[in-house]
Amino acid sequence: xxxxxxxxxxxxxxxxxxxxxxxxxxxxxxxxxxxxxxxxxxxxxxxxxxxxxxxxxxxxxxxxxxxxxxxxxxxxxxxxxxxxxxxxxxxxxxxxxxxxxxxxxxxxxxxxxxxxxxxxxxxxxxxxxxxxxxxxxxxxxxxxxxxxxxxxxxxxxxxxxxxxxxxxxxxxxxxxxxxxxxxxxxxxxxxxxxxxxxxxxxxxxxxxxxxxxxxxxxxxxxxxxxxxxxxxxxxxxxxxxxxxxxxxxxxxxxxxxxxxxxxxxxxxxxxxxxxxxxxxxxxxxxxxxxxxxxxxxxxxxxxxxxxxxxxxxxxxxxxxxxxxxxxxxxxxxxxxxxxxxxxxxxxxxxxxxxxxxxxxxxxxxxxxxxxxxxxxxxxxxxxxxxxxxxxxxxxxxxxxxxxxxxxxxxxxxxxxxxxxxxxxxxxxxxxxxxxxxxxxxxxxxxxxxxxxxxxxxxxxxxxxxxxxxxxxxxxxxxxxxxxxxxxxxxxxxxxxxxxxxxxxxxxxxxxxxxxxxxxxxxxxxxxxxxxxxxxxxxxxxxxxxxxxxxxxxxxxxxxxxxxxxx
Length: 566
Prior knowledge:
The protein is an all-beta fold and 566 residues long. The protein has 2 domains: 2-124, Neuraminidase (6 Propeller); 174-547, Porin (Beta Barrel). Helix content is 1%, strand content 51%. The protein contains 1 helix and 34 strands. The protein has an 18-stranded antiparallel β-sheet that branches. A 4-stranded antiparallel β-sheet has the order 4-5-6-7, with no helix packed on it. It is elongated. The relative contact order is 0.08.
């Protein structure tokens, strides 16, 4: 005989099968979730978990008696799951949920001490119903099978009135509201320090999802943020739309009144975008193809310009986006990283200047982000992982602006004095170097990383919102380079180089402890380049960070193209 929990009509019932898979006996037939059946060593008793009382507990039935009543084995408050009986038939082990998490519990296997289980109504409720059960044998109306008969001892139980809701169309708005918010803060050089909050949500069936971020720079009143929405009701394609505002420092100018005065130029980008994503999801791989369009307005301002302004202060652009994503990597419940596979993504963007004035701001952008993972079956609570990542960017055209490399993906807190809670995901990170240490219209970065588990803590601090789950570490080596085309280098002070060169590449090695889903990082980074980049500092630098994965992309979708100028 084989005991299984069978799903039929959205309800899990415990049944016995023969070796050919045919049902020979229904152990339960009710509206409860009955799961995890286990035989006693002699095959007489069957123990399983059921939430028929509203709380999951263990129940048992004597298989030798076809009319045997159901007996309740445990009576816990948090829930009892996944029972198993020891080979000598003396102990039941199961997983019990308590205030501090799951515990593995053992209790004696003593069927003679198990009381009869309370009766449950096994047929669908069609009207308000009150059942009073007193000491003695009780038959539930229109019920049969185990659990239909029960004996209550010294108690009077009255079931609450149960009304059937009227059928109606599904309304997503009832579960779409925000249930949390996260504080944000980041500083952008010459633009301002932004503080704000973010949140996101989804409806209960996963058709709609949204995210929102809003931040303000108190020193100058500038605002930044985004609102995005996606719809998955068609399964494929997925529909997405977003509105965003971003600020950046794009270069410097000399003031006409005094050419010795050099002032930074800030650019605000307001964008409206829409996208369709076609997804081919399989058990071990996913393929996605996306296409969309966008409307963009760029506005440039001279910081502390003493009344000076640019001749061409705004660009009105219309753009087209196409992207391709492939993923075969996977993660297990206790994984510290993606394992055994690749994630590949490429995005192409073209923006046209709708009303060029002194210059045509039309440009083309191509970005790619790729990662390779392989697991190692070494000691620890999870597999060790070797990871390789490579990212690149290329822009050309009259509107192409330099993009920065450097920094780490995540929210950086540079110790002991610098604090930078900046954007979470960088396309071109090089840990140990500040963001913007080098810029160009062509750039690449690469990472080799060895990740290893340290401890599965699973502990919190009383009722405080502090919890340590799994801790892991990583040894890494980063490298990157950026350069500009000759015509763009003539316009931007940040473009210090016009060709790639091995002696000037950024290279850095280091180690860091990691924790999911946010990593707290305190690594000493040791430079490995013969010529330090400007602003990179000397010697060792202590950094801490809260950061996501090596490549923070969903396996089923390519990352949306983002603006990487800094």
